[in-house]
Amino acid sequence: MRLEGKVAAITGAASGFGACAARRFVAEGAKVILGDIQEDAGAAIADELGDAAIFAPCNVTDESHIENLVDTAVNEFGRLDIMFNNAGIVGAVGPIATTPADEWKFTVDILLNGVFYGCKHAARVMTPQGSGAIISMASTAGIQGGLGPHCYTACKHAVVGLTKGVAAELCQYNIRVNCIAPAGMATAMVANVSTGDHTNIEETKKILAQNSPLKGRPGLAEDVANAALWLGSDESGYTTGHCLTTDAGTTTGASTNPVAFAEYQPLFREAGKHGL
Length: 276
Hints:
This protein is an alpha/beta fold. The chain contains 8 helices and 7 strands, in the order βαβαβαβαβαβαααβ.
């Protein structure tokens, strides 16, 4: 019951990280407001979770939808303790010289503006409350270049920056602001990229396991949900402005290749000499 008495709002809650986090949060004692444009799937998860969950249609490109999501949390459960800005897509893909501007803008609207709206309206109710945790989805593509499409990479870098900026402002109100940066995980979005079938999660797990620095261990939606659980709970009460990776160490240089200089050799020194 690590979230007992807490109320959380989650965008993109009908699938992937959002759905997994919703189930994890409720299991740990939270009440949740589930927002998504996938209304049937979102409503089904809310039904599954019972009285602890409410579904609200939510298109994160429309600020009024985010405003309603937050207001629903307050009106139905009396407060908002956790805002999880999770909704996302892969978005515009291709060479920078031929990326359509309308696809670029649409991607930014979801991946960055949606996070801005979530931070804005969470702050609106958390500031007078004097407490809260805002969590946003970044990515390893928000830490390094070349790991995602250009617009996705730009937006996820921006989410990391926005997290730090908003954390610096809201800390005086006891509001913590952090983000999570996963690598490719076994979700529908990654399955679509990896296999061409968004439902093929099991094959995606096999592909990810083969390429994981942690031998045979794919990244799972549960890994992100557990990170969000920690960041939303009082256990991370002294952590803010942080980007928490769930990436098997890839952004620190871990890979499936042997580590350089892993075998003993006599000490290297000047002019080609070796040893003490």
